[in-house]
Amino acid sequence: MKTTQTQNIKDYKNIFSLMHGALACLLCIMVAVSSCDLASGGSGGIDDEQFQVLFYNNGVPGEEIAQDSTVRSNKVIGESAPIIFRFSILNTGGTTLHLNENQPLSIGGRDPEHYRILSHDPGFQVAPETHWYFLLEFDPQNFGNHLVRVEIATETVQHAFSFYFTTDVLKIPEAIEERFPLPLGDWNSIATDDQNNAHVVYHSDEFQKHLKYATNKSGQWEIEIIDTTAVIGEFNDIAVDHDGYVHIVYYNYNYREVVDHFIKFGGLRYATNKNGLWTITDVHLMGDCTTFGADIHIEIGADNAVYVAFWNQVIGRIQMGTNASGSWQFRTFDDPGASVLRQFGYALDAHNKSHLFYMDGNTYDVKYATDKNGAWQYSLIDNVGSDGLSWGFFPVVDTDASCHAHLAYRNWLKLKYASDASGVWEINSITTISERAPFYISLAIDSLGCVHISHVEFLGDLLYSTNTNGQWATHLVAENVNDEGSGDKQFASITVDSLNDIHIAYNNSDEGIYYFSD
């Protein structure tokens, strides 16, 4: 699991609540995907540029429709909730488009009884630069791959297109623990073991500030309170070693250390059940991170040792440490000439080499550094600008089996992804559902090198983006059901198991910690 969650994220909760009402009334962005003129008849009539079909998957812009393409449903499917595909005809020409009353729109394909047009009007006239909409409802009980063929007849031309879609891709999220009205589930992280069981650590609430751990390895969720020390558990991260033991790092506000005759407080705390029972150790001074936030990351090395990286507020630097020698040893990272900010991503590759993803506060350059070739090497990736930084950066990094880096981050309102897997750095902007400000970005790479990213968009929906089918597609995992913004999903964390299935933990509007797997 790779995720960045800093303290200033709490300020974004207010942003969600204040602006949600104003933004909720905005229409979903529509993406023109194809002229879809796959079959035609007659003579004269409408050219390709005048006739386009827009495709929506449950109100969300979907993948491009092409002959024999596969489209996944973006809807979390319940036992009875129908899957609805929305289409529209866009008349881009300067003359009125007339649908043929004698050949109304028709749907065909496998199991045609499962395809039902919810609304259409044969003979309808579509004025220039306007849309004509219709809906197709599919029975969710009929799982698997399905062929859909849509024919639209105009006065002189018959247009047709077909595509496959699957209905068995998303499941319903389940609650690990719920508690109301006390907040529960802030600052959570997820990992899986070699048996593909999920392990989740989370901050109990804003009042007790305890640390909890949950796992489903017994077939149901079992919860333990690891640390009941007051004001504890924020900025946490979790990893599972190759023997199945759990390792957790988190922030301890109570830690005290004298530096230059001044008392400094706040430290990195480490917990593990490697000896059968939970043991807790304070491992390093971090300084006061309650106001400005901190990033803390944990990795399990190829040697089964624990590796950590964290922001040290006392010295204003990123520090990395490991217990590979039997005791904790630390080193400080510094990019000469740069002002490294506290938001950063950290990953360890298969050779125990470090990969850091961060921003230069002087230039707002997005940078990447690694010591995989011995000495530190630095790469300039992007520039987010001062405006982009003010809205958050949220850098995350992971490595694939070939030790290539994969980065995800926010640049203004865009969710961006960058990688050097091809030999050179390539940057992609990922088209999401509303194109509204991604928060709580988390990233994981599977054994095939495919990328899996979870994030929460500005209006509070939890989304999942992946390039597993060769192109980026975004799916809705958990919808914000409260119009006033109190249903916002927060603190999402993603991981992928040995079967390349994803696991996501997230906070459900401070009311509980939830879990989703595909």
Summarize the structure.
Helices cover 4% and strands 47% of the residues.
The poorly predicted ranges are 6-49, 55-79, 109-114
**How would you describe the oligomerization state of the chains in this entry?**
single chain
Computed over alpha carbons, the radius of gyration is: 25 Å
> Which class best fits the helix and strand makeup?
mainly beta
Q: How many β strands by DSSP? A: 41
Q: Give the mean pLDDT.
A: 76
User: Share of helix among residues?
Assistant: under 10%
Overall outline:
globular
Strand content: over 45%
- C-alpha termini separation: 16 Å
Largest sheet: 6 strands, antiparallel
By DSSP (H or I, 4+ residues per run), the number of helices equals 2
Description:
The chain is 4% helix and 47% strand. The chain has 518 residues and is mostly beta strands. A hairpin with a 4-residue loop joins strand 28 and strand 29.
Topology, element by element:
Layout: E1 2-3, H1 9-24, E2 32-34, E3 51-57, E4 60-61, E5 69-72, E6 83-91, E7 97-98, E8 106-109, E9 115-119, E10 125-126, E11 131-138, E12 145-153, E13 158-166, E14 174-178, E15 188-192, E16 198-203, E17 211-215, E18 222-227, E19 237-240, E20 246-259, E21 262-272, E22 279-285, E23 296-300, E24 306-312, E25 317-322, E26 329-333, E27 345-348, E28 354-360, E29 365-370, E30 377-383, H2 385-390, E31 396-399, E32 405-411, E33 414-419, E34 426-430, E35 439-445, E36 451-456, E37 462-466, E38 473-478, E39 489-496, E40 502-508, E41 512-517
Parallel strand pairs: 5-13
Antiparallel strand pairs: 1-35, 2-3, 3-4, 3-6, 6-11, 7-10, 8-12, 9-11, 12-13, 14-41, 15-16, 16-17, 17-18, 19-20, 20-21, 21-22, 23-24, 24-25, 25-26, 27-28, 28-29, 29-30, 31-32, 32-33, 33-34, 35-36, 36-37, 37-38, 39-40, 40-41
